[in-house]
Amino acid sequence: MGKVAPLTILGQVIKPGERKEVSFNVAKLHTQNSIDIPVIINRSKKPGPTILITAGIHGDEVNGVEIVRQIIAKGINIPKKGTIICMPLINVFGFIQMNREFPDGRDLNRVFPGSAFGSLASRVAHQLMTEIVPHADLVIDFHTGGSRRFNAPQIRIVEDHPQLLELAGVFGAPFILYSKNLNKSFRNACFKLNLPILLFEGGKSFFIDKNITNHGVNGTKRLLAHLGMLKKNFKASDPKKKTVVIAQSSWIRAKYSGLFKASIDIGDFINAEEVIGNITDPYGKFNSFVRASHSGYVLNVNHSPIVYQGDALFHISTQLANDQNTTPETI
């Protein structure tokens, strides 16, 4: 067995078998108070991969923060072998202000890989990509739906990537969704480095859902167990149902403005022309049923009680991966 070398992150040396919390300096406030992000690093004395677990790239996506918090609080991040790096909250500015963006108005997840001389968000992205990411062999990045849209628990990966598909299958979320890497996103920046990254989506902004949290924590345990990193005092339970791999999907949008109420649940399988919600006016004079344009699994439901014409209401699968049969069952 090879000797495990010390790890140096942000100027701090973390020895094998050591736990250390280092400070990722974001910026200073106008008052010159320093804003630091804790980076929690746990190392085993045994050699193994380095896993980076992140959340809170968007400040309003608190369910992801809760997932990583539980991973740390329960000691799941203490590896049997290798190293686990946890960053539960990257966009601390947005978190404090209950806002998605950085104070400069930029979306952190649209400025990667960033620049040492760019905007505040760009500088944070650059520091993450140069100081933390190069140490990782695998990244798990936790997100939620935005704008009151509730995502079913899902792992998003690019199509035709066997390694990512295998890892996503091990994670065991109810859905795997093939989606292209967005330009200047964290996922795309890692992908360009040939660094495998699993993007977990589940729940909605400003909300902590127990079921979503459990999916995130349990999926992480399965992945760590698969890599031989989960300690024996933890059990990685099998998913209750087989993961459904979605090849294509589309949105059903509001034909009218008004009060909106969905009549189906996340993960349901719906049939074409089925009534899945309704839009009314405040005065009891108007009622329009929302019908499914096609059959598929419900991946996202808009939880806003008021919608405008053209708003996205439901995200529905349109095609499953080639090796799957369409089996109507609720996830």
From TrEMBL:
An MF annotation (GO) of this entry: hydrolase activity, acting on ester bonds
CC cofactor: Zn(2+)
Keywords for this protein: Hydrolase, Metal-binding, Zinc
Source organism superkingdom: Bacteria
Keyword Protease tagged: no
Pfam families for this protein: AstE_AspA_cat
Bilayer-spanning residue ranges: none
Record keyword Cytoplasm present: no
Annotated Succinylglutamate desuccinylase/Aspartoacylase catalytic domain residues: 47-227
Protein name from the UniProt record: Succinylglutamate desuccinylase/aspartoacylase family protein
Organism from which the protein derives: Paucihalobacter ruber
